[in-house]
Amino acid sequence: MPPAPQHFLPHTRVPSLLLPNSAAANRFVAREIDKLVRARNAAGKPTVLGLATGSTPVGLYRELIRLHEDEKLDFSKVITFNLDEYLPLPKEDPHSYFRWMHETFFNHVNIKWENIHIPDGTLKPDEIEDFCIEYERKIRAAGGIDIQILGIGRTGHIGFNEPGSPKNSRTRMITLDSITRRDAAAGFFGEENVPNQAITMGVASIMDARRVFLMAFGEHKAHCVTKAIELPPSEAVSASFLQEHPDAIFLLDPAAAAETTAIKRPWEVGPVEWTPERVRQAVVWLSLTVRKGLQKLNDDDFREHHLYELLREKGPAEKIGEEVFLDRLATIQPYPAGRLLCRKPFWSSRRTRTTT
Question: 63, 136, 162, 230: which is the annotated catalytic residue?
Fold first, then answer.
């Protein structure tokens, strides 16, 4: 089977690879991990992985399990550090990341128990600071993280580094954003059951990793992905700090990339082929942007919104607007479900009042 088509999106501040689906992204990252682990094993050295939880990396972990079972990928020298954990939450709780990681991944490969590191959700308040300092020390003692796996939350967070997290932040306790808690509500059977706090590796902890792979799938991630890869780095979107990482890459499916300039307005980032579909996309967007009807668009509207080429190739503006208007008009169906000729008007069944 030939490899699935993929390409890097233009006009992004961090390399962003568009793949046809999440399965292709999972295979891509799994291959990179596979190559590193085998090379390190052959040299007698450990591989240090930073791992994420949630729905995004499930497919990756399944692919790594397959590589272990079918292609003998050996995890005996792999050391792992998880990004975060809810607080307070017992390890045996069905919602704990400790339990989730073991059930989803660790129980299915030959990783050593002592090589697994996950933030402790059972800590007492006076134990948290020392634990976080020790967690950072263990990462350094292991030689630093070779590959860090990330998802992205709707607030643009990586780990649980909510908006306002500084670039120099390290492993610490953090209060969760209301959006993050709302997104987790279904898994906890109600928002009121979601813990208010968590322990998370900081932005600086993540930035220290030698390589970073951030995976994002689905239309609900499109808005935060676009802010993270196209707008300047900001504490408002902690994932945007990855723009300053020397070897970070975003891996996106079409839905997660849908709001990027290269997909939504490709004429702004380079030449495009003006197919009927592309013309329709551009002109409808222009009409909504300038708040004019399709038949009222003029040449200046096109020139002022990066649509010079369209105007030159298909213009003038009045002709383009008229053609798109007629194209849209032809799609209108007055009876989309089919006209029932035998059906009586609703008013025909009403009783008529008579007067005497």
Answer: 162
Question: Is 162 considered catalytic here?
Answer: yes
Q: What is the pTM of this model?
A: 0.88
- In the chain, what percentage of residues exceed pLDDT 70? 94
Span 152-167, mean pLDDT?
96
Q: How far, in Å, CA of 187 to CA of 100, rounded?
A: 12
What does the domain layout of the chain look like in residue ranges?
Answer: 7-260, 265-329
Is residue 336 predicted with pLDDT exceeding 90? no
Fold that domain 7-260 belongs to in CATH: Rossmann fold (3.40.50)
